[in-house]
Design a protein that fits this description.
alpha+beta; Jelly Rolls; five-stranded antiparallel sheet; 3 helices; 10 strands
């Protein structure tokens, strides 16, 4: 390449670059303007396609206005006179009062619980010990310390009273007798005498008795056939109430 030509290119290189850039910008602006004009044409065509139709609505006069326009004052008065009896009849007709129907509240009957006059019977048992001892007496004799005071008024609704006792003879065979004595009123309690025959194995006896009214002291008495020692193993009063 010619050296002069190369030097010219070097000197004018900035100018050439600036010219190319300017040409590129000009082309871009031209392309953008063409696109903008195309969009405006489309928008104008769409806006022309839209049409707004306004339909006027006729305004008709009301019945009263048409009547007043088509009827003279004399005609209107005649119509009012003809309608007057009908208006009076309507005003004289009584209006039916609106009644509200409803169900009256009903209350369920309340059942009051009744208490039974009869209480359930409760059975109670009381055991009053009289004590133990021994005797060799040939006739009825108090067994020392074998007694107790019983107040019958402290036991409500007494159903039955039992005298219970058991004995044995350690060394020989003999008849032994036991009874209950009312020490306060000085009498033998009825049906309280027990007889234990010789050789008896069932030595426990029970008898139904009656207690005296109030506080009484009851003493156990014994007697033996041969005056050998006889042992009172136990003795007690058994009271049942309800």
């Amino acid at each position: 390449m010619n050296p002069n030509h190369q030097s010219w290119i070097k000197r004018n290189f900035p100018t050439i670059v600036f010219f190319l850039i300017f040409l590129n910008i000009l082309l871009l602006d031209l392309f953008a303007a063409i696109n903008l004009m195309d969009k405006k044409n489309k928008y104008s065509s769409q806006s022309r396609a839209v049409s707004i139709s306004i339909t006027p609505t006729p305004i008709f006069p009301s019945a009263d206005e048409s009547q007043s326009q088509n009827c003279s004052p004399n005609c209107v008065s005649e119509i009012d006179r003809a309608l007057a009896p009908l208006k009076k009849a309507l005003s004289a007709t009584p209006r039916l009062a609106k009644t509200q129907t409803g169900t009256l509240p009903t209350t369920a009957p309340v059942v009051q619980p009744t208490e039974s006059s009869q209480h359930q019977a409760t059975v109670k048992e009381f055991f009053i010990p009289l004590g133990t001892g021994s005797s060799t007496a040939a006739d009825w004799t108090d067994v020392p310390g074998v007694k107790a005071e019983i107040d019958s008024t402290k036991y409500a609704n007494i159903q039955k009273v039992l005298f219970e006792a058991s004995t044995h003879v350690p060394s020989t065979n003999q008849i032994v007798e036991v009874r209950l004595y009312n020490e306060t009123d000085k009498y033998v309690v009825s049906n309280s005498e027990f007889l234990y025959p010789s050789g008896t194995t069932q030595n426990f006896r029970i008898a139904a008795i009656q207690l005296g009214q109030g506080a009484k002291t009851y003493q156990v008495q014994m007697k033996t056939q041969l005056q050998y020692s006889a042992v009172l193993d136990q003795s007690r009063i058994h009271i049942t109430t309800n």
